[in-house]
Design brief:
Layout (H helix, E strand, L loop, with lengths): L1 H4 L1 H7 L5 E4 L4 E5 L3 H16 L1 H5 L2 H11 L5 H42 L10 H18 L3 E8 L2 H8 L1 H18 L5 E4 L4 E7 L3 H17 L9 E7 L11 H21 L5 E2 L13 E5 L4 H12 L3 E5 L2 H10 L4 E5 L7 H9 L9 E5 L4 H9 L4 E4 L4 H18 L2
Parallel strand pairs: 6-7, 8-9, 8-10, 10-11, 11-12
Antiparallel strand pairs: 1-2, 3-5, 3-6, 4-5
Helix pairs in contact: 7-11, 8-9, 8-13, 13-14
Amino acid sequence: YIALYGKREVRQALKGAPFTVDYTAKEVTGSSLPDHLTWDEFFSQILKNKGVSWITILSSFIETLSLGYHIPQPEVFNSVIFDVHKDKDLLKQQYQKLENVKIELEGKLKSLEESLSRCPVTDLYNQSFFDLFLSKEMKQHQLSSFPFALAVIAIDNLASINLEYGSDEGDVTMKSLSYILRQYIQDTDEIFRLEGGLFALYMKGLDKSEAVLRVSEVKNLVSESSLFISPTTVSIGLFHSQDIPQEFSQKKDDLNQLAVQTAKFRLKTARKGGVNSLIYESETESAPQGAYMVLLADIPGMQRELIRKALEQEQYQVTVVSDGLEAKAVLETEQPDIIVCELMLPKLSGFSLRKWQLGSPEKRKIPFIMVSSNKNESTVSRAVGLRITHFLQRPVLLAELLGIIGLITARLQIAEG
């Protein structure tokens, strides 16, 4: 002990002991106890004044002495060392159990993160993962300015497939498209299933002409495929890093918005031009309304036709449905910019459709215009409760309706940059 800790520490360790010690000779020189009890008491004093660490540090040495001189180990060692080893083994077992639990939880967490990052229908990475991925890519682009392209893809007839064959067949259609995309992509590409039934194809390292050629090939592969229940085409909006204005801020978030919003704007323009279309340039001189889609949910009749023709004359894209269930089916697969809805729709009323829309995180922000001849204090009160800000009395004044839609699209243009 003196060799390990010095005379001063050992004096403190043996303070009050029933024996005397010569610290120069390093010997116990006298004791009021028999020898075998002095042997036990010596280490009892050590444990009492210095703790278990002073005992365990000499355990191997004391065991060797006891065997060499054929004397029992001090009682302190028999109890303390046993307890220490027992506690050590117990802690080791508990640690191993915790390690096993940790490994199991990490595996489950990884599996959960993976499942939450993927679309359950197509098994492609979803909107949330896309947002994180693109944010990371734009940060890298700031550092190295590599070329990239983002294509946003929509199935032209997905809504009609859902209506004619059911939503299960609509899911099969999306799976078939994801299969085609997977077969076609290269190592530097990534594909995603976005909200609202849209798909995204991210291509890295291609110049614009190469990117246009690649998405054109995708478009042709889909139109020629026999995987679909009925002839199917896609429309595509393409953004390339070459399109970034010279004066544009290179901040990551700004670049994210520019890429996504431009690709979606071009997709809308492509769909306005008809099925199986690709737009990779923005035509600023064309009417801006042409990029916006209006879902008109109304009972068939002359008034509906007047509204439809008035919107189309203003170059809006118009999708017309005759009942609430058809409107819901379109909303499940499409992302219209504005909804114009009759209150008294068959199968699902305008109020019920609005309530469903508010319950959908990706659809709730679509502006909703209610029209009805049944406009009174009760229906207006309910409309306010459903956050409907525009409720027009029928017969509708077309100038009023077009004015409201024009204000809404103007706000959308500002939001899209």
